[in-house]
Amino acid sequence: MKHRTFILLWAACACILAGCGGSSTQKDEHPHAHDEHSHHEHEHQHDHDHTHDHDGEEHDHDCEEETHEAVDNEIIFTAQQAKAVGLEVSTVASGTFCQVIKAGGQILSAQGDEVTIAATSNGILSFSGSVVEGVAVRAGEAIASISAKDIANGDPVAQARITYETAEKEFRRAEELVKDQIISTQEFEQTRLRYETAKTSYQAFAGKAGAHGVRLTTPIAGYLKNRFVNQGEFVAVGQPVATVSQNRRLQLRAEVPEKYFRDLQHIGSANFKVSYSDRIYKLSELKGRLLSFGKSAGQASFYVPVTFEFDNIGDIMPGAYAEVYLLSTPRPDVITLPIKAVTEEQGLHFVYVQLDEEGYLKREVTLGADDGERVQILSGIHAGDRVVTQGVYQLKLAANANVIPEGHSHSH
After folding, report:
1. pLDDT tens sequence across 283-327
2. How far from 305 is each of 262, 290, 318, 326, CA to CA, in Å?
């Protein structure tokens, strides 16, 4: 009986232990499943967050690349450097710009602004020691003398004096004879006429006679433009010796290709540059005016002449070759820059745009026509851009050096 009771107690304990074990296993397994679910959700959330963050990182990476590229291309030029080289920046704005026709031309003396001095007697010509082409002369100044000392016909001054003295004696005698009616009034008048002619001729020579012969003087002040004879050459009466020009007014003669003939009627002014200077002259600033333009091409060329007249400011040389920019119809809303703001590298053109106080960027542009001073910009910049117009060469050197000071940074 005791033995049976022991067996029953053992079986009951075994059942209780078995139930406790199963419950314990379920409790252990359920949290585990929950952990696995939580872990899965965590992984899903992680993947989602990671993907989202990755997309953002890619976007940020692109922006960083663009910023990085801008910084790489940026030229750092400090305010101190800019001040030292006189760097200037202008804000781009559209405005009126004339159509331009380029042509070759020449500077000429204006008509009536020069005189030709001719020989007044036969003889050997000698220029004054300081008289050379380009020298300034005063009105009445002697530029040369003509001597006939060793010429067969003799000294014209001496001849004129002898002729005058002889005519004077005959005239005084005729005055007495006509009173006594020994000679007729007609004969007296002929004698008087010979006397007056001889007197005028002698006075003309006597007023210009010098130690070395007859002096040649200039009637106007100006400068000696040309000498047509050499020192010591024989000259005859009326032969051109030299030209004196005042150069107060000059002419600009442009030779325009005939293909622009229809556009000539719209030309109102011009800019030009002479071969010996880089300066651009504007007829609008020289009281210039259009004189005429040809109605046909030349017989030996296919060019039409266009002629202007303007004031000479003192440094323009007649006879010089000129590069001419004929200004035609005005056009509105055109973006232009000073030519000096544009640089060229291997056939491409660039300008330097200011990004901030010390940052600049080299930008390629496409050029249009230019009037010698400003050039049309077809593409590359827009109104409102700030472009370097002075100190471009120094900035170009800085760009080629590509040196960025340590610790310098920008945020754009």
Report:
1. 999 999 999 988 777 666 789 999 999 998 878 888 899 999 999
2. 13, 12, 17, 12
What's the CATH fold of domain 114-245? OB fold (Dihydrolipoamide Acetyltransferase, E2P) (2.40.50)
**Any bridge partners for residue 126, and if so which?**
145
189/204 Cα distance (integer angstroms): 23
Please identify which residue in the block is written with the tokens 């060019």: 303
Helix (H, G, I), strand (E, B) or coil at 21: helix
Question: Looking at the chain, how many residues does it have?
Answer: 412
Asked if residue 328 has pLDDT above 80, the reply is yes
The first and second tokens of residue 169, run together, are 């004696």
Say if residues 167 and 244 touch (Cβ distance below 8 Å): no
Burial (0-12, 13-18, 19+ Cβ within 10 Å), 89: middle
Amino acid identity, position 31: P
CB 264 within 8 A of CB 255: no
Closest CA to 222 of 289, 314, 145, 130: 314
Residue 8 — very low, low, confident or very high, per pLDDT cuts 50/70/90?
A: very low
**Cβ(88)–Cβ(337) below 8 Å:** no
| Beta strand residue intervals within 48-205, DSSP E | 74-76, 88-91, 94-109, 114-118, 123-127, 136-137, 142-147
pLDDT in tens, 216-252: 889 988 888 889 999 889 888 889 999 888 878 899 9
Q: Where do the structural domains in the chain lie, given as residue ranges?
A: 2-74, 77-109+248-401, 114-245
**Is 378 in contact with 367 (CB distance < 8 Å)?**
yes
Residue 37 one-letter amino acid: H
What whole-number distance in Å separates Cα of residue 346 and Cα of residue 180? 103
Indicate if 114-245 has the same CATH topology as 77-109+248-401: no
CA terminus-to-terminus distance, the chain: 99
CA 78 to chain centre: 29
Contacts for 271 with CB less than 8 Å, ≥ 6 apart: 280, 281, 282, 283, 324, 325, 327, 371, 372, 373
Dist CA 260 CA 329 (whole Å): 13
